[in-house]
Amino acid sequence: MREMTRKTRLSLAFASIAVASAAVIPAVATTASAAPVAAPVPSPFKTRTYPTINPKPIPTSNPAPLSAHWGYFTKNMCYKDAPGFARTALRGAGYKVVNNPPNAVLGSNGTTIVEVAFAPAQTSYNPRDFSTIHFNVTAISSDGNNAEYARNRVRESIVKQTYLDYC
Prior knowledge:
Oligomer: single chain
Helix content: 25-40%
Number of strands: 5
């Protein structure tokens, strides 16, 4: 089994934080500036014009800083079952699955976001055979204790899941 280097672990952690924070912190469009806008050039083609929407920024008094807890572990299992293990662990811990990108599952309960990312340890593997799978569990919340609890609970659930048969 090949150990993950520190650079690889950090890359996985930062990537999972970026994915999770994109789900937590919505982008806010800026309001129109006072600068004059050039008149549109008429098009020879038929076009439709739609009204533009300029949402007002959401006022915040003091945004709370986010705390993140993350860690990785390995598990010998079928790679094709990794998303199912992650979804089961998130739902069992009380999180609703909000996104399921490739190689990850994101869950949220409204105050905490948990991401479970997974990847095979070797490049040449068969998804239907047992192999070593790297899991990275990241929890982000405005309360550090909630993030730590969420990460530990989801991780423990994945570690405890077992196969009754085979791949």
